[in-house]
Backbone:
C-alpha cells in the first residue's frame, strides 16, 4: 500500500517494505511535526478525561464545564447573578450613574454610595430639645431587594460642630434630617454628605 497519514496531525505512515530511499526524510519530518506539537507551533487537541490528567503530579478533578466556568481575570469583574443561591455571573459588579454608584457581590451583598450637597435648610420642628430640618430623600443608584434590611451610614464634609445628621433608609432611598440644640432663623447652611448603605440585592 502507499504511504498514509494519521488522522489527527497528519504524521506520515511509511508504507511497509517501501520508501527505501525516502523513509529517513519522512521519519525526520514526523519528528519535526511532533516537536511542533510540544512547542506550541501546532495546536494540539487532546481529549482529557476527568481525574486522568495531572499537573505536577496533582490530579485535575474538575469537569470540562467546571473549568470553563472557573473564575479568572476576564470574568471576576462582571454582572453578578445567582441561581438557587449559587453564583452564575461575576464576583464583583460596579455601576454608576446620576444617583451615585453601586457595588454588587456574588454572595448577594450590595453597597450603594452617593455624595450630595443639600441646599440651606429651614426649621421644621422641635423633638427632644433638638431643632430639626424637614426630611430630605435621596434615591439609590440601584435598589435593594424588597423586604430585606438596609443599613445606612453617613459622613459630613466639613464637620460642623453642634450639628447632628440623622439618616434612615428604605430599599430605594435615604432619608436625611439635620438637627441642632440651638434654634435658627431663616435657613441653615448644611455640609456636604457622603451617603452609603449596605444590604442585599438578591
Residues:
Amino acid at each position: 500500500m502507499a504511504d498514509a497519514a494519521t488522522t489527527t496531525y497528519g504524521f506520515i505512515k511509511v508504507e511497509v517494505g517501501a520508501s527505501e530511499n525516502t523513509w529517513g526524510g519522512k521519519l525526520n519530518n514526523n519528528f519535526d511535526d511532533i516537536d511542533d506539537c510540544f512547542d506550541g507551533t501546532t495546536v494540539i487537541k487532546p481529549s482529557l478525561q476527568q481525574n486522568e490528567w495531572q499537573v505536577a503530579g496533582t490530579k485535575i478533578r474538575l469537569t470540562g464545564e467546571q473549568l470553563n466556568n472557573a473564575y479568572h481575570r476576564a470574568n471576576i469583574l462582571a454582572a453578578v447573578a445567582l441561581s438557587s443561591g449559587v453564583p452564575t455571573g461575576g464576583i464583583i459588579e460596579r455601576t454608576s450613574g446620576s444617583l451615585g454608584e453601586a457595588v454588587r457581590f456574588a454572595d448577594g451583598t450590595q453597597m450603594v454610595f452617593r455624595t450630595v450637597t443639600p441646599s440651606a435648610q429651614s426649621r421644621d420642628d422641635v423633638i427632644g430639645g433638638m431643632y430639626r430640618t424637614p426630611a430630605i430623600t435621596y434615591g439609590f443608584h440601584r435598589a435593594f431587594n424588597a423586604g430585606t434590611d438596609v443599613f445606612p451610614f453617613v459622613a459630613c464634609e466639613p464637620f460642623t460642630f453642634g450639628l447632628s445628621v440623622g439618616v434612615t433608609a428604605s430599599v430605594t432611598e435615604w432619608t436625611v434630617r439635620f438637627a441642632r440644640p440651638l434654634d435658627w432663623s431663616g435657613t441653615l447652611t448644611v455640609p456636604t454628605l457622603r451617603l452609603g448603605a449596605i444590604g442585599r440585592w438578591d
Summary: The mean pLDDT is 90. The longest helix spans residues 23-39. Helices lie at 23-39, 64-68.
